[in-house]
Amino acid sequence: GENVEQHPSTLSVQEGDSAVIKCTYSDSASNYFPWYKQELGKRPQLIIDIRSNVGEKKDQRIAVTLNKTAKHFSLHITETQPEDSAVYFCAASTAGNTPLVFGKGTRLSVIA
Amino acid sequence: DAGVTQSPTHLIKTRGQHVTLRCSPISGHKSVSWYQQVLGQGPQFIFQYYEKEERGRGNFPDRFSARQFPNYSSELNVNALLLGDSALYLCASSKAGQGLGQPQHFGDGTRLSIL
Q1: Mutation test of the interface with chain A: which of B34, B54, B98, B108, choosing the one with the most A Cβ atoms within 10 A?
Q2: Residue ranges of chain B with pLDDT lower than 50?
Q3: pLDDT score recorded for residue B103
């Protein structure tokens, strides 16, 4: 089955700097890659997603890139703010009724 | 529009008991999935239901069961509770089945503690 690896497990950045979180997946059939942000005690919130027919997607300060050949995708957050501090999860799924498989998460701390 | 709602928010049970968790999807969403999130880990898939039929099951024992009702709400049942069942149980809804790569939106979860 699908396996998703996520790095780093923790990340600290200064306010205003960029943050990058990387994920790799094992199943070449995976074609949908969402990213979730989970603040302490709250629900995972979908922040951006990308499908395999697209190499990059951007939404304001957040962007996701996908390299299908290498089977990895990354989340980029620019001009980080303290409210970006949270745990971020990547996930992958394939067509044909397979579930989301999540990475173990990255705890991002933005230091003011 | 209301998001995914789950009840109860917190629950304390003892070993051997059973529990029923409830989920109401976003209006118009026909697919409901259940995930277990242990502290410090990503959510792990338990079940998916679409149009009242089970469409997927994760690697969980038969003590876990679920169903979806005609109004697309769902219940997750866990029997013979073990200490290891302590976790946050999340429900997610999407417009269609997961196979179509539909965004899934999560509820706030039910925090289950087993004593």
Answers
A1: B98
A2: 99
A3: 84
**Look-up of token digits 């429900």:** B91
Residue A20 burial by CB count (10 A; 0-12/13-18/19+): exposed, middle or buried? middle
- C-beta atoms of B98 and A98 within 8 A: yes
Chain A, chain B: beta-carbon pairs less than 8 Å apart: 66
Residue-wise pLDDT tens digits, A2-39:
899 999 999 999 999 999 999 999 999 898 999 999 99
Q: Which of B42, B97, B104 is closest, CB to CB, to A104?
A: B42
Give the model's pLDDT for residue B101. Answer: 64
Minimal-distance CA residue of chain A relative to B5: A43
Contact B25, B93 (CB under 8 A): yes
Tell me, what amino acid is at B5? T
pLDDT at A95: 61
Q: Is the torsion defined by CA of B52, A97, B98, B23 positive or negative?
A: positive
- What's B83's DSSP letter? G
Distance (Å) of CA A6 to CA A73, A101, B59, B61:
10, 11, 21, 27
B44 touches chain A (CB under 8 A): yes
Find the Cα–Cα–Cα–Cα dihedral B94, B34, A100, A59, rounded to 10°. 50
